[in-house]
Every structure is written in structure tokens, then in C-alpha cells.
Amino acid sequence: MSRSSSQLAQRVILEGADFPRLLTLLKERGYRVIGPTVRDGAVVLDQLASAEELPVGWTDQQDSGTYRLQRGERPTLFSHGPGPHSWKKFLFPPRQRLFAAERRDAGFTVMSDSGSVPKQAFLGMRACDLQALGILDRVFLGGDYADANYRSRREGLLVVAVHCTTAGGTCFCASMGSGPRAPSGFDLALTEVTAENRHYFLMEAGSEPGAALCRELGCPEAGEADMAAAGQLVERAASRMGRRLETEGLAERLQTSREHPRWEDAADRCLGCANCTLVCPTCFCNTVEDQTDLTGARAERRRRWDSCFTLDFSYIHGGSIRPSSRGRYRHWLTHKLGTWHEQFGTSGCVGCGRCITWCPVSIDITEEAAALCLPAAGAAASPRKDRTAHRR
After folding, report:
1. CA 343 to CA 341: how far, in whole Å?
2. How many whole angstroms separate alpha carbon 41 and alpha carbon 60?
3. Could you say which of 187, 259, 291, 368 would form a disulfide bridge with 207 (CB–CB 3.0 to 4.6 Å)?
4. Is the dihedral of CA 331, 333, 335, 336 positive or negative?
């Protein structure tokens, strides 16, 4: 389902004042528009009724265990970093009924819940999240058995991506090769530019539906100066990442660090709250629950998100395979950065930094991975950064 922009070189200019027209067109075409909005002190993802609900003029400060919204200097729409929501919740819902069965006459009638769903348009999807979408596609649609519930939401999805011009405090997508520019996989991609009292978007088509939107908007073609200004902003964001991760040989180095004392150090701090997996755009662990009413005439099967950080997740007859926090944290990190390559041909991390920002005890995946790649003595001699003052 990936799309490439290589054959669609159309680049136009959408003035900031005309941006609401894009939302209007999407809604007229029957799309349920999902995008960023401000709620409860954070930029979250939700259905948008109008462009006024976008986080106009908002930016954020992010660090380990720290998230603060703050007003920016300019009325931009996408100067914030990734928030606590990832787009996976709209394709792989946190709770979902898979089917229901009712007793009728001599047997049961099964009613599936994998039918048609409203068309969705993702507005403001970052490059890191777009790469995460490709990973989820391989997980749920690859192989011999595709997930019908995921597929019903994924088909017909229209993606309006945003090339990042501002790097977040916990972002490291440049290290993972997943941003800040999205090379493909979008229908439209926007680069937001503010300069000389002008606010506009360089808009490029990545699919025929995206090109059709460009034509209907009637936007003028972008000039060389417009494209150069947008490119410089994206390059600047790449050079100002809040974090970095050395990925060369990382999977192999993690394989040889299974008994490293740093695992115990991380486990002593980890609360097992599963925040990191819940905010992660690629984590897909889930469990199913069966429910039956008191009469036995109706039963339901529901799927909900789960996490490898919970003790019950690896439970089999006789107990849990990973009973210790050390074992669970080690499994998560080595899978995410290492063995995921063996399963899906890519890293399970896209460098969005959400797991760093939303960890209540400030565990930093980039810091832990770097320490685990050092000899045990060197890692022990390298003290952790004290971020207590930043926690809220």
C-alpha cells in the first residue's frame, strides 16, 4: 500500500490563509479527517471539524519524562513534536469487538465486526509515523494471514504528511533514517514555511488522489526559491535532533549484552507501567477476551492492547516466561532495536522519542542502548544523567 512521489513531481504553494480549503475538500470527499489538536495540556490526535481546531501557534518542550506546551512566536500549525497519541489507534483500536455470537434455534449465529468503516484522512502525519505505518502494514497485512479489521481501516486511507521543520527534544528520527523528511508513502506532503511576514505550505503530491486535490485547490506551482526555503528548514531540523542513536551494528551488540549489569539498573527504575509501549507507534502486542452473558445466549470476543511489560503477557501453564522486570525490559529493548530486523526486515523503532518523553521515571532508550554497547565496567563507570528536576 505504499505510494511513491518519484513519478509525481507536482509541487505547488498553498497559502496559509487557504489551508482550511484543504480540510473542506477532504470532508466533501467523505473523509473523516484526523489530525492534531490541543486538549488537556497536550497535542493529541482526534477528529477535526474545522481548521480552527488545529494547534495554531503551539509548540512544545520535551525531555525525558517531561512534556510542556508553550506558545510559539508564529501562528504555525505544525511546530509541535509528537504527542502522546500515535496514529495506530485509528487503524488498530485500543479496544475492539472482533465478533459476537447469539444462540438461535439449534445453533449460534456469528456476527463479524470487520465490515466497512468510514474513510479516514490522516492530516499532519510526521515522517517517523509514516514509517511506523509501513511497519504496521507488514505486521498486519504481510504473510499468509492478513488482519481483516486492520485492512478495513487501512484501505482507502488518505495521508497528508508533514515534513518536520522543528526537531523535538527527544526526537532521533535522523538516526533511524525515518525523518525528518518523508520520502514516500503519502498522498500529499506539506512543508510549512514562515518567512518575511508570509505563511505558506510547499505541497507535493505522492499519489494520483493527492495530485487531484492539488488540481482542485488550484494552487500555483512552486518556484525554485520556495523549494529551497522548504528544503533548508527540513535540513535544519535534521541537524537539531534532541537525541541520537548509533545504529551501526546495534542489533549484534545487543545480542552479546544479555548479561550486562545495565539491564538490572534499568529494571530497578522501571515501573512496568507500559507507557512506552502504549505511546509507541509500532508496538502491536494485544490479547483477546471472551465474554458470555448470564444466560449463555450471547458471547463476544474482544481484542485490546496489551504490553510485554505486563507479567501476564508471557504467562503459560505454570507461570510467566519473563517473571522479572529485568527480563521484560530486556525483551522489549532487544526486540525493538534488534530482533525486529529478523522478523520484519527493519528496526521496530522510528525515532519519534515518545517512549522517552512519556516514561515517568525518565528512562531513555538512546541512553540505555549506548550504555549496553559499552563493556560492563565502562557502563558502570558512566553515571546516568540526573533528570529528576525535569520530571513532572
Report:
1. 5
2. 10
3. 187
4. positive
From residue 44, give the alpha-carbon distance in Å to each of 36, 122, 125, 217, 317.
5, 13, 12, 27, 40
Q: What is the pLDDT of residues 275-317, one digit of tens each?
A: 999 999 999 999 999 999 888 888 999 999 999 999 888 888 8
The DSSP-derived string for 179-238 is -SS--BS-SEEEEEEEETTEEEEEEEESSHHHHHHHHHHTPPBPPHHHHHHHHHHHHHHH
Model pTM score: 0.88
300 exposure class (CB count in 10 Å sphere: 0-12, 13-18, 19+): middle
Task: Please state at what angle helix 365-372 crosses helix 262-269, rounded to 10 degrees.
Answer: 160
Judged against a pLDDT cut of 50, whether residue 391 lies above it is answered with no
Would strands 188-195 and 158-162 be described as parallel, antiparallel, or unpaired?
parallel
Longest CA–CA span in the chain (Å) reads: 75
Q: What is the DSSP letter of 51?
A: G
Q: What is the rounded radius of gyration, in angstroms, for the C-alpha atoms of the chain?
A: 22
**Average pLDDT of the residues in 158-180:** 93
Euclidean distance between CA atoms 303 and 327, whole angstroms: 25
CA distances from 293 to 76, 163, 207, 288, 297 (A): 51, 50, 48, 17, 7
Q: In what order do the strands lie in the sheet with 158-162?
A: 11-15, 198-205, 188-195, 158-162, 120-126, 32-39, 42-47
| Angstrom distance (rounded) from CA 281 to CA 350 | 8
d(CA 189, CA 207): 10
For CA atoms 71, 73, 75, 78, the dihedral sign is negative
151-to-90, 93, 172, 201, 388 alpha-carbon distances in Å: 12, 12, 30, 31, 43
**What are the DSSP calls for 297-329, one per residue?**
SEEEEEEEE--TTSGGGGEETTEES--SHHHHH
Distances (CA, A) of 249 to 27, 41, 194, 260, 366: 46, 39, 40, 17, 15
